[in-house]
Amino acid sequence: MRRSLGVGGAVALAASSTAATSSIGIGLGLMAGIVGLHLPAILGLAFLPVLAIAGGYGRLNRVDPDAGSSYRWVGTALNPWLGFLTGWVNILGTIVFMAYTTTVTGSAVIQLFGAAGVHRVAGLTLSPDSTLQCTAIGMVVLIASALVAVRGLDLAARLQKYLLVFEYLVLLGFCGYGLFAGDQPFSFEWFDPFAIPSFQALAQGMVLAVFCYWGFESVFSVGEEVRDPRDASRGGFIALTVMMLLFVLAGTAFQRVLPLGDLVGNGAQGLTYFGDRLAHQPLAALPLIALTFSAAASLQAAVVPTARGMYAMGRDGTLGPVWTRLHPRHRTPATGTLLITALAVVLALLSLVIPTVSSLISATVNAIGIVVALYYALTAVAAAVRFRHLLRTSPVEALRVVVAPVLGALTLLAVGGYLAWSFYDSADHFELAADNGWFELLVPVLMIGSGLLAAAWARWHRRAPYFTAGFGAPDDDLPAWSSPAPTGTGSPTGAS
Fold first, then answer.
1. Are residues 292 and 105 in contact, defined by beta-carbon separation less than 8 angstroms?
2. Element (H, E) at 120
3. Of the four, 73, 149, 186, 266, which is 20 to 30 A from 141 by CA?
4. How many CB atoms lie within 10 A of CB 37?
5. d(CA 113, CA 119)
6. E strands, 309-410, in order
């Protein structure tokens, strides 16, 4: 694959993957229903373990940039089974994310039509809460995003830069104005995490908030396509910090403008309602346009790292060679990109059994949050094991790449585990509903269980060298299977 990305493109990819506008537009209402008027507190608190884990990601990428990122690093430092599981749940989680984001994107487009006065098309009444309509429109955007990703990473990054500039200008303008124009009384208690009603609310709020930051690590999956590996690390840290500032600003502004009931009650249309409270048309439509751009950019930013992850797994022999086929001209994993898009389309169609957009978002976000906490924690532990020698040779550096990642991992495992238990304990029967705890818990269980079965198939049927070359190698003694493929030459499988 070509090394075509610089630090600006890395920031754009990481920021688009986290999709701040989408997280603000749909996530704040969900979190407010759990933590009340403590959005700034929970968003700031969740940033700390993610930042700690990001230190481990950055150091791992600096010494070993790889398209597989956490799949590769966990397999090398800890155990190939855990490494495969990390890559597998990351891929499945992203495909599920793409499936429900198609619905979110379609909902934003229909809301945008409504703001423009278009409420019926060909005799059909458009509804932003119709999962069928939203999914159909979103799938068109998803396919278009995948085709751009096939064309090249540099083109995708340039497109995302323009979208991000517009999104952030709109967010800063409306949220900044809302801080002063809002009529809800300001309170410093909003920033106090100890004032959150219960530990269960804290745990569930933390998982949802961590999910808002999810995606910054996607920049490390293009480590083989970044001109300097340090640019990927810089891009991830810059994007993560900007996300935190935007989230805290938006959480404060939303609570200044909207009463708690309105914030919770508007759910997936929270950003639209926020814009309507602050401005008249056509200015009130700007946040909705930004939300549409953010959802579309996040679809493209999701398919890019997922295709690279499966490319790395195919290159190691844990998945089939179809995932390693590169476009003959653009040198992107085109076949994998299109296959992943097809899988997301199929899953989006299956998700139509859940009747409303809000229910789909709630069930999926809660479930993926547990999986994200798991593979973030595994990657953080891998960094600590890989660089444990720094505890003796460089204690200051060890604080950043050993101690802090371990503390972040323990935090995420604690809140993720507690949330999983609360889901199990909240119901006494299974029901296909977003508020049924057993249904929410079933999603991460299926992801992990299918990962173990797929790992067993790769280990004993495919006989992938990934599982037999050893693990726990130091930085200067990596096993042969883990070396990045050489650039500039072709191979029968397309790994170049």
1. yes
2. strand 120-121
3. 266
4. 19
5. 7
6. none
Q: Cα(459)–Cα(154) distance, rounded to whole angstroms? A: 36
**Burial class, 200, CB count within 10 angstroms (exposed 0-12 / middle 13-18 / buried 19+):** middle
CB 287 within 8 A of CB 250: no
Contact 89, 486 (CB under 8 A): no
Beta carbons of 290 and 75 less than 8 angstroms apart: no
Instruction: Report the alpha-carbon distance of residue 411 to residue 415 in Å, rounded.
Output: 6
What the block records as the tokens of 106 is: 């379609």
Backbone angles phi, psi at 111, to 5 degrees: -60, -40
Place of tokens 């930085």: 475
pTM, rounded to two decimals: 0.83
Does domain 7-475 bear CATH number 1.20.1740.10? yes
Distance (Å, rounded) from C-alpha 310 to C-alpha 318? 9
d(CA 222, CA 156): 13
Instruction: Give the amino acid at 215.
Output: G
Q: Which amino acid is at 440?
A: E
Kind and range of the H or E run holding 316: none
Query: Contact, 470 vs 479, CB < 8 A?
Result: yes
**Residue corresponding to tokens 């599982």:** 467
Q: Alpha carbon 50 to chain centroid distance? A: 12
Query: Which 3 state secondary structure label does DSSP give 463?
Result: coil
